[in-house]
Amino acid sequence: MISANTFEYGSRLSPAPTPIVFIVDDDISVRESLESLVRSAGWRAETFASAKDFLAYPRVAVPSCLLLDIQLPDLNGLDLQKRVVDRTDMPIIFVTGYGDVPTTVQAMKAGAFEFLTKPYSSEVVLAAIENAVECSRAVLGRQARMMSIQDHYASLSRRERQVMALVVSGRLNKQVGGELGISEITVKAHRGSVMRKMKAESVADLVRMAASLEIAPAL
Q: Domain 155-212: which CATH class?
């Protein structure tokens, strides 16, 4: 089921971490059944009998998804969904026997990845998990790339940031020098340093990075 052998964060390839499938259901037979199904596909399973138990589990930075029941002994599934709304790297798949239309609509509007009602086939559950894990992997990749760009930008000096802002706004070296009161040769040196520190392959690449950092174009 899991085909990728490597996991890309930014520009570095590292061994792919085993995705985690969290299972929250107060019925032990359901938990054990889903756990067995998840493990048979090569994923790691973590099971919980309540929302409270799940919330006590440390947050992880590996591809994951959450199989969640609606009826739980403390917080119900919809309430738990609200508690973890910021965890966009962990898609939620509702797996429940209480799938009336209003509940389904509420869950999907709140961002649920999938809503499966019992009885369900193993194939349907596995397909939903696989899609959710791929979504999680993509989100984590974007987050890692963003953190990398932020780290690179933090390494720039004040002058280098000024040069970068003008370069991504389309200024020529001569224009940048005129606005900053420095020579064109100095601009070229700063510009080269910016490109190296930001690990930008081209000015277009630098422009995309600036947009992701929400750097306002120089007027």
A: mainly alpha
Domain spans in the chain, listed from the N-terminal domain onward: 6-145, 155-212
Compute the C-alpha angle 97/102/107, nearest 5°. 75
- pLDDT tens readout for residues 156-213: 999 999 999 999 999 999 999 999 999 999 999 999 999 999 999 999 999 999 999 9
Q: How many CA atoms lie within 13 A of 210 on its CB side?
A: 24
Fold that domain 6-145 belongs to in CATH? Rossmann fold (3.40.50)
pTM for the model: 0.78
* Pairwise pLDDT comparison (28 vs 118), residue with the higher score: 28
